[in-house]
Amino acid sequence: MKASYHKYILQFKQASGTSRGIMTEKETWFIIVESNGKKGIGECGILRTLSIDDRPDYEQKLQWICDNIDLGKDELWEQLIEFPSIQFGVEMAFLSLESENPYILFPSNFTNGTQSISINGLVWMGEEAFMKQQIAEKLAQGFNCIKLKIGAIDFQKELGLLTFIRRNFDEKTIEIRVDANGGFTSNEALVKLNQLAGFKLHSIEQPIQINQHDSMSELCKTTPIPIALDEELIGVFSLEEKEQLLLKIRPQYIILKPSLVGGIRGTTEWIELANRLSIGWWITSALESNIGLNAIAQFTFMQNNAMPQGLGTGGLYTNNFDCPLEVSQGQLWYRSDLEWNCNLL
Q: What's the pLDDT band for 335 if we cut at 50, 70, 90?
């Protein structure tokens, strides 16, 4: 068996506002494994400044993987505990190699095109007019769950955007999730949550910054809106640490990004803990190319979670890979009659 890695720069169609500023491009890495004339591909979807493995030795670790690929998926996963995006890339590459079709990692009614995955429509941060335009587009596209990133503009204007939605659509018609990306201080958070409560929101992600476990725990006890942990889960490696965090904070939901929490195995550990503690969860992509999105979507379908998932649409980039994933009426479909076009395999 042999392996190689390749850097790839994804170019955004338009500059996209996130909690880490404006993004015009996104770096990602691919691992290609080869054995007996077959190839498999995995994506290491690092998010600079957010991923715990955003480290100077990242590329060095990719080379180490290639030099030690014969250790196999499970042993490599253990050795990569501090590199969750590479853990996921390795898992993906081995599944791809072992599959009859390198792009069908989890054969199911999703990959045969008979069932879909409900997803939320993401509204990017930006000026009020731009966000309002996106909201109108998502509603016209048939989404019944909208995720709104807040914290980029004046809070009163953000309340105005929510008023704009609720004036036209009640909570039974459109589910609204908001993501604060830690934008509230612990002192003001409850006041702002009470202001938001009138809009009948499904949930709010990460209202305050990470590592304020006492404050977050208290907030989860008193909040009028269900709270979902997101960034809080990054860098929590061991099963014991994961359990301690959930027992301490007791959130209403957790949000799982496989590229940030240790891939399939890491995500499965969080899901099993959440189910045991009666904590809700959903899975989200993290700006991966269609290679990574494909793996996340197929894995997500296998979890039988009927809630809208936070899966991207693959349409953000000018140089993404053509693939069978397609969004229609707020649902992600795998159109088995469409072809992949990936020059890496």
A: very high
Q: What mean pLDDT comes out for the span 74-93?
A: 97
- pLDDT value of residue 152: 67
Residue 26 is among the residues annotated as catalytic for this protein: no
Out of 73, 149, 192, 242, the active site residue is: 149
Catalytic, out of 73, 147, 192, 257: 257
Kindly indicate the confidence band of residue 129, based on its pLDDT and cuts at 50, 70 and 90.
confident
Q: State yes or no: pLDDT of 17 exceeds 80.
A: no
248 counts as catalytic: no
Task: Please choose, from the candidates 120, 117, 116, the residue with its C-alpha nearest in 3D space to the C-alpha of residue 174.
Answer: 120
